[in-house]
Request: fold
Amino acid sequence: MIRVLLVGGGSGGHIYPLLAVAEEFSRMQGISVKLSYIGPKNALNQEFVDRDIPVYTIASSKIRRYFSLHNFLDIPKFFWSIFQALYRLYRLMPDVVFSKGGPGSLAVVLAARFYFIPVLVHESDAVPGLTNKISGRLAQRVAVSFPEAEKYFSKKKVAFTGNPLRAELMEGMLDREKARRKLGFQTDMPLLLVLGGSRGAEQLNNFVLDNLPALVAFVQVIHQSGTEAFSSVATAAHATLRGIGPTVAERYRVIDHMNTGTLRDALCAADIVLSRSGSTIAEIAAFGKPSILVPLESSANDHQRANAYSYAASGAAEVFDGKNFTYHVVELKMKEILEHPEMYEKMSTAAKRFSRLDATQNIANEIIRLTALGK
Reply:
């Protein structure tokens, strides 16, 4: 029996890769793995409960390298989280800790170091945050999703694995026409998928709403708005489309949050994706969809911009940021991609080439190899 502690939290970008690795262990033959999870309180923790993985909570604190009044609360919370982590790891005593980073994770890595428990850290972005930079120095192994991230860690520790994807996302895939019919869209008109991440993206929501009549004139749109913004986005879209006829209005659909099955169907159905450039890139690449990426300008260490340009260098995407993100230039680029089959196929092929579908298996194997150090 191998005991593995999964660590991370803050967003779907931290949680879903942990779930993907957990599912990989459940499929592996000839090995028995006991999993547990520790992270801050989060609605997504229910995903672990649903899989019979015990959940332990820890204080959530953020490390900032700039002055903020929040530091007066987060610094004491950080030290409290270390005591929590020391207690939890003493009781659980895992063979390996697998950390995805995020709030609370550094305390667990420090506690693991205290107990001489091997640690594997995974970095999803091209530029790691401060938590993973520190955790990477303490860990025995560091897995990365972008080659650019390798330079931030010891060459002896780093492994280029890619970003783990949930197996469910890649199972039961439909062809484009069947997926569109399932989602209620026409099969003979291009479909744009707008993804703002698990929390939505105000900039992308406003872009769609401000230009909705022009968009639905040449594409259908399935729009993930985020749960908090869903009501206001749906109301505004309804008001905008009310006067242009029911047939045209049916070309637009807004969804608050996509579960795994809905995301799979939406990616199967879509021709092109408009998205932020976080961990969603791995999902877009796996489905071979040409994309237009709009980095979040306020992302820590500007990592979304680094992700976007790293991915775009493969030929799979176009990047629009800052003042370049205007409707007319985006529309021209979308039409260029959709109306030129050779360009579309080239971008699709580049996306699939960038994808690492073996990432989950690679990370699971790295964890198993580390168990020898903990015994």
About this structure: The longest helix spans residues 71-92.
